[in-house]
Amino acid sequence: MKTGYRAGKGRIFFLLVCLVMCVCSCGKPEEKQAERVYVPDFLTDDKLQGISYYDAVFYGDCLYYVDYLWNEETQTSEYALKSYSLADGTEEEKKLALPEDANISSFALGQDGSVYLALTIYHWDETAGNSGNEILVAKYDGEGSQVYLTELTDAGADNGYVYINRGGIAVDGQGRCCLISDSGLWLFDAEGNSVGSVSLSGGQSSVDGGFTSGDGTVYIIKENYGGDVFTTSLSPVEFESRSVGESVCDFPSSVSMAPGGENRVLYHDRSDVYVYDLQTKETQKLFNWIDCDINGDSVTAFGVLSDGRIAVAYEDFETGEEGVALLTDTPAEQVVQKEQIVVGVMFPDSSFSAAVVQFNKSNDRYHVSVRQYADYNADGENYYEAGLTRLNADLVSDSCPDILSLSSLNWEQLAAKGLFEDLSPYLEQGGKLDRNDMLENILEAYTYDGKLIAIPDSFMVESIVGSASQVGQEPGWTLEDMIAFADAHPEADLFDTTTREGVLRYCLNLTMDDFVDWESGKCSFDGEEFRNLLNFVKDFPESYEYDEDAPSEPERIQAGEVLLTTVNFSDFEDIQLYREMFGGDITCIGYPNSDGSSGSILYPMNLYAITGKSDQKEGAWDFLEYFLTREDTGISWGFPNSRSELETMAAEAVEQKYVLDENGDPMLDDQGNPILEGGSHGVGYGNWWYYYRIPTQDEVDMMLALIESAVPGTYVNDQIMSLILEEAGAFFQGQKSVEDVTSVIQSRVGNYVSENS
Among 8, 174, 375, 662, fewest CB within 10 Å belongs to which? Predict the structure, then answer.
């Protein structure tokens, strides 16, 4: 497992939360000026720490969750349903006697205080030599005594399993129970008798649980995959006719839902929270999670209390924080305003959202909000292009964000337009960031025309790896070198399962700037170099068909059938895997480039720039400095930008740490060897497995040298790539000469570059 090197928690206080008041049909409504806000109150009761929030639900004014108790007398574990009152902080516990070996898959609560359980018993059939499970439905009264226990007898499944997950049981207002799986529904009357089932298998949809609305109707949630846009639908269960009614609305895909009071449904998309009225069919946006100091990815349950407050349970794996917050609808004028900083992103990121939440909690002056531009639910398959259009419009308007995420963007093209602030003066003014401690090539990688555009908080290194005995000891080569290497080994494939487009992208990773100059708006695709490239990639397959019986990539490399592989290095232990794969010394030869220098590419993580149009530059830098120096208890991939942190990481990588006994001596395994702390871990490629060991100092030094020599890649514009492939297709199919197609490519791409420079 990769280990992180950052962590941080801020103090909690009340904060402004934007509430956009508007009404429209299903989907995301249009935004208006905030008139009211939701203010969070984070509960600090110790009784809310360390509980299982994964399966928690809000019912009435209580939080309910399953707990596991150890019985000292019987030396067995017991299940209990616990509740925490959000009104007075009192707790209640109901011990539930379950059948032997039964596990709780899901639970629901009846209006009379009864408890309904979906139970699973896993078993192994010695005679048949396979495994399966049994599904049972149980009801317990308000005191925890069992009322009925019914086995599901008609739950057939091809693989012997029926899966009942979280939200897999619901009870209507008459006490009738509905068991929900991906393949169907099973209905039970108030006495626990089976009254039929509804098949939901097949088609382009899957069931994602269900819940009971305020009027006692059971609804199931379906994820629909047909068409250009994925959706989430909500449909009522009709017990009398043993069927599922028509969808009440097509919501955006992958939303989480909960009852929102009488005839209302709450739902959120990990970013914003909405309420849908089942009678009027209208949707209203309530608030944004980040504006509530909550990371939407961490929300495990939410619901409406009797006094109208919204209760939220959260478990943030990025920060380690968990608990319950109560959100109160408040007039905006009653809340102290902060100076607003807007971060523009194409796509949301959970770790970044967690950092924003922590900054907002700890900063009394500034409040950071996140504006997402790419929206698959709104734009379907054209979500990236539509998002880029919205972003470009904002960048030249008064709506320009203060900070911009450069992930998935051609930052050099944007920098050529002078859109970004130079970060060097901020870095040199002194503060938490020490320029002298930062890796110089990391800073140089994101310097454009003398301006430091952005600073990544971490990075990985991408490279092409081959056997040193075949590609030589020294890294770096040109396109001509790669072609000559392939020609010298006609008996083997250059890469495993690589398509024509894939190889073309490999070759353009460090050479696209040789063909496109965004600053001048000119390009050069009609020369000999690009023609040679097309001639080279022509011999690779247009597509790849997966064959589960084919040998794995390591097996093909060791059999001499494959010469090279692409690697994304994120840890000091990675080198050893490829030494094993190639059976000896390796060379990170890198991607081909014009001068044959190091072709290993820096892949930045969390790369943000301050826009030149921002009127909150000081506040934007305060946030970036906080973000780049924060400590993080969550898992973090990659290498830190700090030289001192990188050296610490390198030293720890070769350190031998063992599990110690009570006397401080290393514990031994069955073979008498000391047991390494953290245990052994490995990686598998089909039938080929490798288990990692402690890296050698030589391997760590090799990785450090690779980091020092790595360079930033050039942005391979998808639109340009599409134009190239579209026109080059005639050459690949033998219909046109390479001269003809490169002439057309030069014209079409030239127009595109000129228009977008």
Answer: 662
Q: In what order do the strands lie in the sheet with 146-151?
A: 103-109, 115-125, 130-140, 146-151
586 and 446 within one domain: no
Task: Output the CA angle 706-712-713, nearest 5 degrees.
Answer: 110
Count of structural domains, the chain: 3
Nearest to residue 310, comparing CAs of 16, 19, 22, 40?
Answer: 40
- Residue in this structure with the two tokens 């033998």, named with its chain if needed: 734
Same domain (yes/no): 582, 553: yes
Instruction: Specify whether 212 is located in the same domain as 357.
Output: no
In terms of domains, do 393 and 251 share one? Answer: no
User: Is 11's pLDDT higher than 60?
Assistant: no
H-helix or E-strand containing 415?
helix 411-416
Nearest to 234 by CA among 277, 192, 194, 199: 277
pTM of the model: 0.81
* Residue range 511-564, pLDDT digits in tens: 998 899 888 889 999 999 999 999 999 999 998 888 888 999 999 999 999 999
In a shared domain, residues 409 and 303: no
Residues 460 and 7: their CA atoms lie apart, in Å, by: 20
First to last CA, the chain: 43
pLDDT of residue 287: 93
What range does the domain containing 402 cover?
A: 350-457+606-634
Q: Are residues 498 and 446 in the same domain?
A: no
- For the stretch 603-632, pLDDT in tens is 888 899 999 999 999 999 999 999 998 876
Note whether 468 and 439 are same-domain residues.
no
